[in-house]
Design brief:
Rossmann fold; globular; alpha/beta; 6-stranded parallel beta sheet; about 575 residues
Length: about 575
Amino acid sequence: MSTATLKVASDASDQVDATQELTDGFHLVIDALKLNGVDTIYGVPGIPITDLGRMAQAAGMRVISFRHEQNAGNAAAIAGYLTKKPGICLTVSAPGFLNGLTALANATTNCFPMILISGSSEREIVDLQQGDYEEMDQLAIAKPLCKAAFRVLHAADIGIGVARAIRAAVSGRPGGVYLDLPAKLFSQVMNAEAGAKSLVKVIDAAPAQIPAPSAIKRALDVLKSAKRPLIILGKGAAYAQADDAIRAFVEKTGVPFLPMSMAKGLLPDTHPQCAGAARSTVLKEADVVVMIGARLNWLLSHGKGKTWGEPGSKRFIQIDIEPKEMDSNVEIVAPVVGDIGSCVAALLEGIGGQWPAPPADWTGAITTKRDENIAKMAPKLMNNAAPMDFHGALGALRTIIKQRPDAILVNEGANTLDLARGIIDMYQPRKRLDVGTWGVMGIGMGYAIAAAIETGKPVLAVEGDSAFGFSGMEVETICRYNLPVCIVIFNNSGIYRGTDVNPRGGDVATTVFVKDARYDRMMEAFGGVGVHATTPDELSRAVNAAMDSGRPTLINAAIDPAAGTESGRIGNLNPQSVVRKK
């Protein structure tokens, strides 16, 4: 417990004996976090939380200061995903809070445990709308966008407030939590012994949720009846860290599996049962689909439509900790509700010693299609032309990840993201971090920073030039903390491509950036290494040198401005006008 000996009056006007050992709101927040194993805070300093960051550092916590709160929030969110402990983002009031709120909402949508802690204006002024500094009812704004929201008004309640936030963030389906701390709270003083007793160590914050035996039997009966079974692994399966059990279930059943992008590496993408390179075939032709930590949202065409073949041709088994997820888009004939580790363990126990292999004509057809697609793609990945296209550049990076499977890949963009998902194989779990469920751009630098800090592993961030723009100033943060992050920017001078033209002349087209921009010189400005690469061979040499050195590096990969398609592979979501004005 952090304490001080002084004479001061509390907000309740109770005189505190000068001989008492005292503590205050600043120290209680820090002690409450440390008591619950929180050792890192991501944030941006300022009124009224500047001293909180200073004191946290003095207390032995690591405080990583960013240039923008949204990036700090993204870092906290992915820290939660990687560690299964809530990542902490600390922001100032009002505008700072709003900047962090996008990351909080994204964390909730992606089921990442995160706590956004923001200083705020005083309640008595906010409620009367009297015009306080950065006045805003932050709690009311946060509530619809996160899993839970709490406000602490009294120092004696800090311990319980932090405990409630932690439990809400990690229990059940994880998500984002907002914790509102008004400025006046920090300077409240109380007896140190009473303060220590007010702190709460959260016990069993995310208890196992055991599935019903009848649900397990029903799921196995449906799976056993399948002629063309398929397992889909989502990022929830990766978050669960039940890697051995999931691999045992996949291999024991012999069922082909399709990993969603952040589940890649739970089993290697080169595993003989992996159907990633035959995605369209398996989604259309499977008759029984087992969903493990995956949701039938837009990323899977909501479980219906032409992607899935004939209507009614599928039966779904879904494993999820949230009962309301079942039947969200289509009927789930075998819902299994519980945490993924417990559910998969129960399925394995139910299988017992033997399980019938899937029909050979099904697995053979998948293997044939997968091998055809891989062979068709191979020549494109060997293209060493200048200027580079996406396939040639990603082919070089594919080889690097194969040689360095322990490295963490962060990926965002349009074409840069969509093509990398299919081209770059992953070999270990939780090594691929990308835009996830919302598909939101701007996560790159926050994710890269937190991945380096939380894991100590080298990070390769592969960015579209547009996506990088949302968080690019954080290259200074990467240099300031000397993190082993190598950023590769696929620079085709525009959003989607750099060749669009304004038909009326004057301003450049809305999707076009400065031609031949040198992003590498941004990194050099802050003391990092900048490299300009024009061919896949040059790109490969530069990335390997960066990964070997561990120095902050930014590689400007010059991509043909004509390369790229509108909205990557989701152009169908971008409506096109059929009316042309003269």
